[in-house]
Write a structure and sequence with these properties.
The chain is an alpha/beta fold and 272 residues long. Helix 3 (39-50) packs across helix 10. A hairpin with a 4-residue loop joins strand 6 and strand 7. The chain is built from 12 helices and 7 strands. The protein has one domain: Collagenase (Catalytic Domain) (3-Layer(aba) Sandwich).
């Protein structure tokens, strides 16, 4: 099995970093046509997020996604377990509704294929050893991370198992607790990369988004389109994207992405 690691990184010098993407993101043409209405922009964004890797030097990345129902076991060692469960459950249901991929909690860890661990910062490396392996293998990610996501794939590039480790104390200190829940499990669906070129998006470390954006909604819809197959190369995916995007436009997913991504989301849950 291959292992892919993802992190939710913190934002230093926040006001400076926000300024750059906001300046780049909005021009007069963007006011008339949001970026997710531009099918070429959506296609390029999907390739960058689904088929490139931040911490893995895979020479020929392939499309990865789940081919089996997702069964989540949650472990909390830091209090507020009910709140953590509710936030995680809401976002899991949201992802299931968008992708059509079954996602549910299990009470027995032996039946799980995703483990979500809420812990403390000083316990992160121990949790990595327990659930992932030698921390030195992902040292770069550990040194940068507020929280950590990792998944394993089989020879067909199907995701077989995932782990999310959220140090609640550190994530809250950095103002990234909710971001960790939203970003990490979303990336474990098969969108493992981050890119400053993709905006607005939770997959952009310079973006201010804590919730799925309309663009993120479309990336998830594309990822689980029946027109794609696990293990496809970037060239094979690009060939399919025009017909997928045409279908998304015909059924209103592009035009109504803001309304559809809001429905059932954590943003709606917390009342923003």
């Amino acid at each position: 099995m291959k292992i892919v690691t993802k992190t939710c990184t913190s934002i230093a010098l926040l006001s400076t970093l926000w300024l750059a993407p906001l300046t780049q993101a909005y021009s007069p043409s963007d006011v008339e046509q949001p970026r997710w209405h531009n099918e070429q922009y959506v296609a390029d964004s999907f390739i960058k997020i689904a088929l490139q890797r931040e911490y893995n030097e895979t020479a020929n990345p392939k499309l990865v996604r789940w081919e089996q129902p997702i069964r989540v076991f949650m472990s909390s060692e830091v209090g507020d377990e009910s709140l953590q469960h509710q936030l995680l459950s809401t976002h899991m249901q949201h992802l299931a509704a968008i992708t059509g991929q079954p996602i549910a909690f299990v009470e027995n860890p032996n039946n799980a294929n995703i483990f979500v661990i809420f812990t403390q910062f000083d316990q992160v490396e121990d949790k990595v050893r327990q659930y992932i392996g030698d921390p030195e293998r992902i040292r770069a990610a550990l040194d940068e991370a507020v929280c950590l996501g990792n998944f394993k794939i089989n020879s067909r590039q199907a995701i077989q198992q995932g782990t999310i480790i959220i140090p609640v104390d550190y994530a809250r200190h950095r103002g990234r607790f909710l971001d960790c829940i939203v970003e990490e499990i979303t990336q474990l669906m098969g969108l493992p990369n981050d890119s400053d070129d993709v905006f607005p998006s939770i997959f952009n470390d310079r973006s201010i988004d804590s919730y799925l954006s309309p663009l993120d909604y479309l990336l998830l819809k594309i990822l689980y389109s029946p027109a794609l197959q696990t293990g496809m190369t970037p060239a094979q995916v690009r060939q399919k994207l025009p017909s997928i995007l045409k279908s998304l436009r015909q059924n209103g997913d592009i035009q109504h992405a803001p309304q559809r991504v809001y429905q059932g989301s954590l943003r709606q849950f917390v009342g923003e």
